[in-house]
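Help: why these numbers?

___
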Amino acid sequence: MKQLIIILIALLSFQIQGQTTVNGKVYNTKGAPIFGANIYLEGTYDGGTSNEKGVFSFSTSETGTQTLVVSYLSYETYTMVGDLTYMKDLEIKLKEDVSTLDAVVLSAGTFSAGDNSKVNVLKPLDVVTTASALGDFVGALQTLPGTSTVSEDGRLFVRGGDANETQIFIDGIRVFTPYTPTTNNVPTRGRYSPFLFDGITFSTGGYSAEYGQALSSVLLLNTVDEPDQEKTDIGIMSVGASLGNTQKWKKSSLSVNASYINLAPYIGLFPDRNDWEKPYETFAGEAVYRHKTESGLFKLYSAFDTTNFELTQEHIDFPEGAYFKLNNKNMYVNGSYSGVLTDTWSMFGGVSFTSANNKLNIIDSNIDNTENSFHAKLKFKNRFSNRFKLYYGAEYFATDYNETYQDNFIDEIDYGYNNNIAAAFAETDIFISKKLAFKTGVRAEYSEIFKDFKIAPRLSLAYKTSKKSQLSLAYGNFYQNPTSDVLKFEQSLESENTTHYIMNYQYNADKRIFRAEAYYKKYDNLVKFDTDFAGFDSDFNNNGDGFARGLDLFWRDSYSIKNFDYWVSYSFLDTKRDYRNYPMEAQPNFANKHNMSFVGKYWIEKLRSQVGFSYGLASGRTYTNPNESGFLNEKTKPFNSLSLNWAYLISPQKILYASVNNVLGIKNINGYQYSSMPDLNGQFNRRALRPAADQFFFIGFFWTISEDKKSNQLDNL
C-alpha cells in the first residue's frame, strides 16, 4: 500500500512539474481593468477569466509555441503567438470594437433609410406613406431639411442649388434622366417605382469621393437584394392601374412592376387650369433580376416608360394660349455585381445605359432631341481591419446628345455634343476609436469636351460626444459639367465648381432622433450668358459665382405617443448667385429663405387604419417686377399646403387608400408672368402663375396575393 501511495505522489509531482502557469492583467486603453474577459489557449480547453482587478491566471500542460486569445464584448479580440514560457505577468490592452452599434458614424450631410444603416432618419416605407408624396420618393425627400419648396417643378432643390445639381444613382450606377417629362407649372415625378427599393441615402453635401458630377447633392437608391417570398401586387387607382409580381428560385429571383396612368377620367371629373387636348398618359415597366453566386450577388435592373400629352396653357402674350405637345420614350438598363474576393478584399462593378427621346411642339416650334448615355464603374475595397478600410476605383461617363429644331422662320437645323468624362477615386475610413473616426478621399476627373483635369479632395470627421450623440464635420470640393441646355450650344467652357463646409450635431436614442446641421457653400465658374435664354446667339462664359449658407434642423419621434410617428424639419437658407442671364448677384427664384415640414402617421388599431398628414410651409420666392427698378426685386406670398392620407386594411391582404393634397384649397402662387410689352400707361401687365390644380384627390385599391397570406402593400403606401 505504501508503494502505491509513493507511486501516486510521484506521478502527481511529475504532473505538477509539467504544468505551465499563464498569468497577467487585462485593461482598456484608458488603463481601467476589465472584469470578465475570456482568456484561453486556442485549440485547447485551458483558460480562465479576469477578476474585478483585471487579473487572470491559469495552468496548462501544453508546451512550445501557442496562441493566446483574449476576448471581451465590445472590444477587439486580442491574440498573442509565442512560447508558453514567456506568457507570464502579461499586460494586455484591449481596444474598443469600432464596428459595434454604439460606435461613431460618419454622417455629416447624409440622411439614410435602410436596414444596413446605423442611423435611420427615414424608413424605406416613409417614401410612400408620406401624405404629400403621392408615392414619389422625391416628394418624401422634400419634407427633409435642406430642400426648397418649388411646387411647380417637383425635382430636388438642395441648399441653394438648382435641380440639375442633384444626381441620382441606382445600385451605385448613375441615372441620367431620373424624372418624367412635364410642361410649365406642372410638377414632374421620379420615374422609378419605390416598391423595388429598400435602401435610400440622401446626401445634402460633403458626400463620398466615389460620386462626382454633382454640385449640391446625391441620392442613392438600392434595389432589394433578396425578396422574402413570392407574391403578386395588384393596384386599381383613380388615375390608372399597376401590377407587380415576384418569383423566387434557389439562387435567383425576379421582380417585375408595370403601371398605366391616364389622367383623362380624372380631369373629366376635376378640370384644371389647362386646356387639355390629350391628358397626360404614360406606360411604365420595371424589372429586377438577382442571382446569388458563391461569393457575390449579380443584379440586372431595367426600366422603360413612354409618355405623351397635348395641351394649351394660358399665356399673357397669346390670347389663344400657348400650345404644347410632348412625346417621350425613355429606357434605362443597369447591371451590377458585388462580391467577396478574399477575407479582406471585395469588389463592385456595374454599367448603365440610358436612351431618352423627346419630341416637342411648342407654339410654332418643333424640337426633337435624343440622349444616349453610358456609365461604367469598378470599385475595390480592402478591409485591413475594423479600424482601417481602403476604397478605390474608376469610372467612365459618356453622353451623346443630338437635337433638331424647326419653326416657321428657320429650316431644320441639327446640333448637339459629346460629353465624355473619366474619373478615378480613392478613399479611406480610419477609426481611431469608437468615439473618433475620419474619412479622407480624393477624386480626379478628366473632361474630354473641355480637355480639362480636376482634382477634388474630400474630408469628414466624426466624434462621439456621448453614448447618444455625436458631432461631425465635412469638407469637399465638387465639379460638374454644364447642363444640356448650355452644352448643346457651346462647348468652349469649364466645369462648374462648389466647395462645401458642414458641421453636424446628432442625437439618437429611444426611437427619437435630432439633427442640427450648419453649412456654407461657395460657387465658382458658374455659366453665364447674355440673352433671355441659352441659344445660338448667346455669348457664354464661366464668370458666374455665388454662395449658400444656412441651418437645417430635424426631429423625429416614434416613442413618446403610442402608435404615432412624426417628424418636424426646418431649414434656413441665405443664398445669392450670379449665373445664367442674371445681371447681378441675387437670391435665385427657386430658393426659399425658410422651409418647414411637419409629417405625422398614426395607426388606429380598432379601425385597422393608418391616417397621416403632411404640412408644408415656405417663405416667398423672388421674382422680377419690371414695373419697379431692380432684378428679382419682389417676393411671392408664402407657400402653404396641408395634405391628408388614409389607408384602411379591409382584410389582411386588401387595402383601400385615399389621399388629398392641399386639403384646405389654399390659393398658392408660384410666381408671376409679365407681358413682353408695356400698355399705353407704360405698365407691364401680369398674371399669377398658380398650380394647374389647387388640390389633387387620389383613391386606390391594393391587393396582395402571397405565400404567407398575410403580406400587404401597407408598407408601400
